[in-house]
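agent> step 3/5: call structure_predict on target 'Tetratricopeptide repeat protein' (Pendulispora rubella).
agent> reason: downstream docking stage needs a structural representation; sequence fetched in step 2, passing through unchanged.
tool.input:
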Amino acid sequence: MNLSKNGHASGAWAKLAAATIVAVCALPGVAHAEDKAGAAALFAEAGKLVDAGQPARACPKYEESLRLFESVNTRYFLADCYERIGRNASAWALYLEVAAKASDDPAKVDRARERAGAVAPKVSHLTVAADAKQTSGLAIKRDGAELGPGQWGVAMPVDPGPHVVEATAPGKKPWRAEVQVAPNGAKARIAVPAMEDVASESAHTSTPVASPETAPPQDASLGNGQRTLGLIVGGTGIAAMGAGVVLAFMAKSKYDDAASYCNGDRCVQEGVDLRDSAVSRATVATVVFGVGLAATVGGGLLWFTAPRAKKQTSVGLTPNGFVLRGTF
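tool.output (status=ok):
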């Protein structure tokens, strides 16, 4: 059978699926009949999803089909599916496995090697650096899988996305960090720091790159409440200042009305009453305006001094860079 360049040739898909189902179900002994049938059904369903432009949904079905029954064809199409969703390291490795397993079919070997060579430049790499001499018994894992000392300091192929690196050693505090690897041949590096003794009191955040430490965020609800109170107090103050101004104008109007009943400082009773009323209103206006001014200033202070939640900082991601977040 010829493995097409795009994984699934639209005109030949029905024949391919039928041939695979027959081949899987006909092989004796290696798997239970139900597993063979299930693997064939999953293979067919995955092919339909790829043809429908949904490779992300197809890949898990290929994976399960391969788990139920080992097949070079399924392995090839799973590699093709990985390549479609950008998991180039996984695709590259599977193409090479197909080339190794299909030794009895030179055409398949050539096709798998061709696909592996095409995807190789797009494979991203992650280097996990560590000094074996710095910590006795050091053990390192990447995404839960142990990295032997032979891999330390070597750029290893990985799929793009987040990867978790963990380090442990007897008598040392465990170390953990997350590194973000960019796609399309990007290279990232992370170094395991000197391990801290378990007895140490100075637990701290440790990452291979310097980044600003962030304080715990303030309780946003407290700040919101204080700002609300500031608005209320300030608004009341502004209203009081307005009332003071109105009372001042009313006082001046009364004082001007008294002029008709006075000759300088000598007034008939009506003029005296008007002037007394004007003075009283002016006094009230002054008090009201002063209280309003104080309330406005107080409201402003409440608003501007309210605690605010602090924003956390992060290290940016570049095409050949990575983001680290690590704690002991």
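agent> step 4/5: record observation. Residues 13-122 form a domain with the Serine Threonine Protein Phosphatase 5, Tetratricopeptide repeat fold (CATH 1.25.40.10).
agent> proceeding.
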